[in-house]
Amino acid sequence: MTRNLIHSILFRLCAPPVFGVFVYLLILLINNTLQDAERIFSSQELYISIVLTYVSFESMRMIISLLERYLAPETLIRRRLLVQMTLTLVVSLSLVGITISSYFKWLVGFSIGTRELEVFLLLFGTIGLLYNLLYFSYYYLVKENRERMEEERKMREKVEADFSSFKSDINPDLLYESLENLILTLHHNVEKAEEQIDHLASIYRYGLVNRQKELVSLEEELHATKSLLALLNVHHQDAIQISNEVEKPAEIYLIPGSLLITIDTVVRNTLISARAPLNFLIYREDEDYVVVQHNINDRLLQHQESLQAFGRLQRSYSFFSEKPFVQVKAGLENYIKFPLMYIATENETESA
Fold first, then answer.
1. Distance between alpha carbon 293 and the CA centroid of its chain, in Å?
2. Given this model, what pLDDT does residue 344 score?
3. Would you list the domain boundaries of the chain?
4. Do the beta carbons of residue 4 and residue 135 sit within 8 Å?
5. Beta-strand (E) ranges in the chain?
6. Which CATH architecture has domain 168-351?
7. Pick the residue with more confidence: 297 or 319?
8. Which of 72, 143, 260, 339 has the fewest CB within 10 Å, making it most exposed?
């Protein structure tokens, strides 16, 4: 746990002299004019003021240390504020009053006047309030920072959990639909049925092989996408087409299954027919994104499971990139933008 600023050795050594000088100058200005203050300035009285500040600060710090030990932090808002303010002011002002009275009586040779004592107590009471204000301000600052760090930790854990969940998705709907189409195809074309089995096996083999990987190349994703497209077009009579305009896809990396999840989600939430085909275009946007563009023809009833998988994919990208995963609808087109990620070579790493 981070200790409060008032417990710092540097603060305990440096703060009292600064406040002591400040108090002494205020006392001179309260009791005299500026010209008189310059004339009657006394280094001995300045040292006494600094000593009084040390006494005030250390006594308040001791009270606060005892309260930190015996009062739980959750009592801070309800009782700690009132208790701490009262105890620190009473103890510190009592010690300051006793010390200054003893100084005047035993060293100066006469008792301090009531007005002078009131001025001392008023100034040190104000300093005591500022001291407590500094303590509580630092306490709440540390508390707020700790809460924010805890929120960030929980968000990171959630993103990691989403990422793990996303990588372990099986997509049962695709499996069942493919098996149903396979049963229908077996009755009239065994060779096509074997091709469907190969495509289905290729998709799930791709998922299993890359299950432990964090990133795969766009080239690998595009290869797996061909098998997915072949299976989807069995049901949609070749009404789904994909065009790729990305150069050097082997140098660009995505989270495994990014294109598979994206295309599957779009297909399950789009009305598709021979007269209203679904066309995908994959291209690179500057140095920031790989874009999947497609025409919009939304279904009336959305497929929730695919949308949830797409949401997990979207959150997973925040784990790898500071750039946001973007989805923009403009007119009759939808643009899904994956932030570009690269894997540094050994030479690049050594030069960095």
1. 31
2. 60
3. 5-164, 168-351
4. yes
5. 216-217, 240-244, 253-254, 278-285, 289-295, 326-330, 333-339
6. 2-Layer Sandwich (3.30)
7. 297
8. 72
